[in-house]
Amino acid sequence: MADVRIDVALAPRHLQVTLDVPDGQVVAVLGPNGAGKSTLLALLSGTLAPTAGSVAIGGRDVTGLPAHRRRVALLSQDALLFPHLSVLDNVAFAPRAAGVRRAHSEERAREWLEAVDAGQFADRRPGQLSGGQAQRVAIARALAADPEVLLLDEPFAALDVAVAPQLRALLRRVLAGRTALVVTHDLVDVVTLADRAVVLEAGRVVEDRPVRELVESPRSRFAAHLAGRVLLEGTLAGELDADAGGEVHRGDAVVIATALGPVAGLWQDDTAAGPGATALALVDPAAVSLHREAPHGSPRNCWPVEVAGMEPLGGQLRVIAHGVGSYGAVAQGPAGGVAPTVTAVRDGVSRGEAYVPEGGRSVRLAADITPAAAADLAVAPGRRLWFVVKAQQVRVYAGH
Ligand SMILES: Nc1ncnc2c1ncn2[C@@H]1O[C@H](COP(=O)(O)OP(=O)(O)OP(=O)(O)O)[C@@H](O)[C@H]1O
Fold first, then answer.
1. For the CA of 39, the nearest atom of ligand 1
2. How many CA atoms lie within 13 A of 287 on its CB side?
3. Which of 46, 142, 181, 201 is surrounded by the most beta carbons within 10 Å?
């Protein structure tokens, strides 16, 4: 068994993490810069000691053990091979250091080099390898040490985008059945390599869920951005078609008060909640349409926005925009309060009640549209348009 149990604090870096990884599971570790991802790996590998708590691997308490006695291999974005040793000697280094006889350790090193399709580089020096080749060798070296746990810190970050897919396929093979933690900023790594995803923010775990759930219904801003969604944080006002006050249940059309103003969506959480509860609305940019004027009709969210920029996305364009205060003929809406904001959404903007409070100016929204639609609407930075999404297509969850 090579399960990992980590329950540590590192006071100077404000990190406090509890995490159990069962034997054979690959966990993606995600989070913004400075969240503590690398620090967590360092606490596991033994290059940093916690100020409190413990680390156990395969049921052994390794908290007091030095890095080389933990049976943990760390692979970082730079291959960090010994420049003065041949590739073969680099890979044979760990078994040699563990007391395996030269002939045997070289044999093992050759096997691992073959396994990562790098057998032909055995006699080269690291300086004669490309970045992708060096990273293959680094993987072989890590595996030759026969680790119980593999830690990968942005393993493709320093590589050409052209080589990353091959290496990813290799890592997928290598990671099958192993206990591993992979720090990454790349959604492709998350979905292709990991079973489960943990999101760190400011040294704390804010999400810990199966990868599929995380990409389908992210609950943290970081995961939403990674999954290409927009996450709006707010407070539950109540049901869309009822007077505010009662509890809402899964499938109910609800309204939440956000920095963008009232947002209507479907409550998708299994837990019931009442007005005032923290709520998260998830918007898929593919469900957002752009209009010159706010349309009428069924319950829709209509947000006046100013276009910030555009990015190509497959055959489409992703339009990035920010909420703006009311403009044109739209009157300023109420400054707050539950009931008026519900009315604003239910009755639509045709009555001139759509508005974005001051804070909405910093809310980043995205809409995926065709290049033809972009041309028709003359989408360009600075242009003011309406982002429109049906309430049915906004999923709302309980926040933390
Ligand atoms: N060597 C160090 N000495 C002191 N503090 C550090 C050191 N390295 C990181 N920190 C601090 O610890 C916190 C966590 O940093 P860490 O590098 O673990 O984050 P990260 O999530 O890996 O970020 P990134 O994605 O930028 O690599 C940050 O506040 C950072 O400033």
1. 18
2. 17
3. 181
Ligand 1 proximal residues by C-beta, below 6 Å: 13, 31, 33-39
Q: Ligand 1: distance of its center to the CA of 94 in Å?
A: 28
Task: Tell me which residue of 209, 146, 201 sits closest to 174, measured CA to CA.
Answer: 146
Q: What is the Cα–Cα distance from 153 to 30, expressed in whole angstroms? A: 11
| Cα of 39 from ligand 1 centre, angstroms | 6
% helix / strand / coil in the chain, to the nearest 5? 30, 30, 40
| Structural domains present in the chain | 4-223 (3.40.50.300), 231-398 (2.40.50.100)
Closest Cα to atom 8, ligand 1: which residue?
Answer: 39
Spell out the per-residue pLDDT of the chain, length 400, in tens: 699 999 999 999 999 999 999 999 999 999 999 999 999 999 999 999 999 999 999 999 999 999 888 999 998 888 889 999 999 999 999 888 888 898 899 999 999 999 888 999 999 999 999 888 898 899 999 988 889 999 999 888 877 767 777 788 888 888 888 999 999 988 888 888 899 999 999 999 999 999 988 988 888 888 988 888 888 888 998 888 766 568 999 999 998 888 888 888 999 888 889 999 999 899 999 999 999 887 766 667 888 889 999 999 888 999 999 988 654 333 233 333 333 333 444 444 333 445 566 667 778 899 999 999 999 999 999 999 989 888 889 999 887 6
332 neighbors 349 (Cβ within 8 angstroms)? no
